[in-house]
Design brief:
The protein is mainly α. It has helices at about 5-15, 60-75, 140-145, 170-180, 200-215, 220-225, 230-250, 265-275, 275-285, 295-305, 310-315, 315-325, and strands at about 55, 80-85, 90, 100-105, 160, 165-170.
Length: about 350
């Protein structure tokens, strides 16, 4: 028979669940793969066309936040529309007492404040919210169900096709690739590219990503969602070994970015993890051995990236903190949001970063 850990993960895939449920028998967080993996390409089932696609994002989610940043970097805001969910998870079937799933839901600016699932807090509906103008859904779960989802995990980002009324893709890196090249004939900034074409540059990015993704991007979640001390200790150790490697890499490199002077997809994904580190992960996910503010190389990287207009435009610290601190009552019962926004991201000495 298959091991218990495999059975637990298989059960989680079938039932409505969240990332908090993706834990193996040893208490370690095991992120499941995205369930929709089609691609926008000329001549394919999903060709690039203006007005055909819609992006669903959460500004609190680093993966979705990165997709929205890429959309603005390429100048696709007139080509691909988007919706922004409320940061606080709530019941996705509130009228079914047997269905306890909580997740992303839609609200309009000015709607009544949202409590957490236990009735605590009053989390505003601000002007950053954009309801589902395409399908009229009240939760992201409903969007997935329209697409006949079989995974039970209703994550962001989601790229939706209006014409076929289905999800094209919900894997963030693949959405970045599509925005980077598939829509170039329609983009305001086709010259911008997050994915270098040279083989050496590609190999260097993949080498770095071999430890950045599992130990940093996903590593903070492995710390925060661990259910045993051993799983947490392992994730924390690997996280800070990776952060130390990145610190030295940035201090010794030609910079200002990970592979030199070109801003890439790896910089974008690292940014959206690091900007959440001090205000959220350090406290909430117990990644408290050191702050990013105490690491000159990583802090300099954060400040440099923040000078990019599309990054600045899509970074919403209010949504970031509200999501994490109000969505998981098992981790923060009363939904209290700490005060700090992390280090000052403004760097008056450096205004040169532009993409």
């Amino acid at each position: 028979p298959p091991p218990l850990s495999s059975l637990l993960l298989a059960m989680a895939k079938r039932a409505a669940h969240t990332a908090l449920d993706e834990v193996d028998a040893g208490g370690a967080f095991k992120r499941t793969a995205a369930g929709f993996r089609s691609f926008v390409r000329a001549g394919g089932r999903f060709p690039p066309e203006p007005g055909r696609y819609h992006l669903y994002v959460a500004l609190g989610c680093p993966w979705a936040n990165g997709a929205l940043t890429a959309l603005y970097l390429k100048g696709l805001e007139g080509v691909v529309s988007y919706s922004v969910v409320h940061p606080t998870w709530r019941r996705t079937r509130p009228h079914d007492p047997l269905d306890q799933h909580v997740g992303w839901h839609f609200r309009r600016p000015g709607d009544a404040p949202v409590e957490n699932e236990l009735g605590h807090g009053a989390n505003e509906c601000d002007d950053a919210l954009v309801p589902d103008t395409v399908n009229g859904c009240s939760s992201l779960r409903e969007v997935y169900e329209l697409a006949q989802d079989e995974t039970g995990k209703y994550s962001t980002p989601v790229l939706w096709c209006r014409r076929e009324r289905t999800i094209v893709c919900n894997e963030s890196l693949e959405i970045l690739r599509m925005f980077d090249s598939s829509f170039d004939d329609l983009a305001k900034h086709p010259e911008v590219s997050l994915f270098p074409t040279g083989s050496e540059a590609q190999a260097e990015l993949e080498r770095l990503n071999d430890f950045v993704y599992p130990c940093v991007n996903n590593g903070v979640y492995r710390c925060g969602f661990a259910r045993t001390q051993g799983a947490y200790d392992t994730a924390l150790r690997e996280l800070f070994v990776a952060l130390d490697r990145l610190e030295q890499h940035l201090l010794k490199g030609e910079g200002p970015y990970l592979t030199g002077k070109a801003f890439t997809w790896l910089d974008l994904r690292l940014w959206h993890t690091l900007v959440r580190f001090d205000p959220v992960y350090h406290t909430y996910f117990k990644t408290n051995l050191r702050r990013i503010a105490d690491s000159p190389g990583l802090l300099g990287f954060l400040r440099k990236v923040y000078q990019i207009p599309a990054v600045r435009r899509t970074t919403n610290m209010r949504h970031i903190k509200m999501h994490y601190f109000t969505s998981h009552p098992t981790l923060n019962t009363y939904g209290i949001i700490p005060a700090s926004d992390g280090p000052d991201l403004e760097d008056s000495q450096d205004e040169s970063a532009r993409v």
